[in-house]
Design brief:
alpha/beta, about 15% strand, binds adenosine-5'-triphosphate, binds magnesium ion
C-alpha cells in the first residue's frame, strides 16, 4: 500500500513488476457521468502532453456544448460526428451510412500510433442500434497499438465489448434531478 508520502502515487500493489499497457476502458450504466468521466481522463492524459482525441457519436457536428467550447479553448481535438443522424425521421439507411463514416474515423484514430488516447463517446449506443457492427470495433481494438488507451462510453455496453475491455465501470443511477424534480438538462452540467 502506498503511504501517500510521494507526490506521484505509484501502483497500489508493489509485489510485481510495474505493467504499463494501453487500456480499453468502458464507461456504461444508467447513471450520469459516463461522458464526463471520459473527458476527465482525456484531460489528465492531455496534461501529460499525450496526443488525445475525442470523437462523439450521436452529437451533431454543429453542437457547441460546454465540452466543445472547452476543447477549442485549450486546443484538444474533439469532433462531434453525428452528421446526418435522423433519429427523428427514422431514416435507418442514412443513419447507418453516417455512423459507418464516423466508425471508420474512430478505427483510423485507434490504428494511428501517434494518438495515446482515443475516446469514442456514445459508441455503445450505435453498437446497440446495430448501426456499426461490434466485430468491426473488436477488430480495431485487437489490432490497436500496444500503448494506446481507448475509452468507450454509452449505456448498454455490449457483452462482447465488456469481455475484451480492461476497465469497465458501470455508473449506477441513485438520484437524478430530472426524475425526482423534473429539472431538465442544464448548461455547464449536462451540456
Ligand atoms: P454526462 O454526459 O453528464 O457524463 P452520461 O454520459 O453518463 O452523462 P448519457 O447516458 O450520455 O449520460 O445521457 C445524456 C444525458 O442524459 C446526461 O446529461 C444525463 O444528465 C441525462 N440523464 C441521465 N440519466 C437520466 C435520467 N434518468 N433522467 C433524465 N435524464 C438523464
Ligand atoms: Mg454520455
Amino acid at each position: 500500500m502506498s503511504t501517500g508520502e510521494s507526490s506521484e502515487p505509484g501502483p497500489q500493489s508493489v509485489t510485481g513488476p510495474r505493467i504499463n499497457k494501453g487500456l480499453v476502458i468502458v464507461n456504461t450504466g444508467n447513471g450520469k457521468g459516463k461522458t464526463t468521466a471520459a473527458m476527465g481522463v482525456l484531460f489528465r492524459a492531455w496534461g501529460r502532453d499525450f496526443k488525445v482525441i475525442m470523437l462523439q457519436f450521436i452529437k451533431h457536428s454543429t453542437a457547441n456544448f460546454g465540452e466543445q467550447r472547452a476543447a477549442k479553448k485549450i486546443g484538444v481535438e474533439m469532433r462531434a460526428m453525428g452528421d446526418g443522424f435522423t433519429w427523428d425521421t427514422q431514416d435507418r439507411a442514412q443513419d447507418i451510412a453516417s455512423t459507418r463514416r464516423a466508425g471508420d474515423e474512430v478505427k483510423r484514430m485507434i490504428a494511428d500510433p501517434s494518438y495515446a488516447m482515443v475516446v469514442a463517446d456514445e459508441l455503445n449506443i450505435v453498437l446497440r442500434y446495430d448501426y456499426l457492427p461490434l466485430s468491426d470495433v473488436l477488430e480495431a481494438l485487437a489490432a490497436k497499438p500496444a500503448m494506446t488507451h481507448v475509452v468507450i462510453t454509452g449505456r448498454n455496453a455490449p457483452e462482447g465489448l465488456i469481455a475484451v475491455a480492461d476497465l469497465v465501470t458501470e455508473m449506477g443511477l441513485v438520484k437524478h434531478p430530472f426524475r425526482e424534480q423534473g429539472v431538465k438538462a442544464q448548461a455547464g452540467v449536462e451540456f
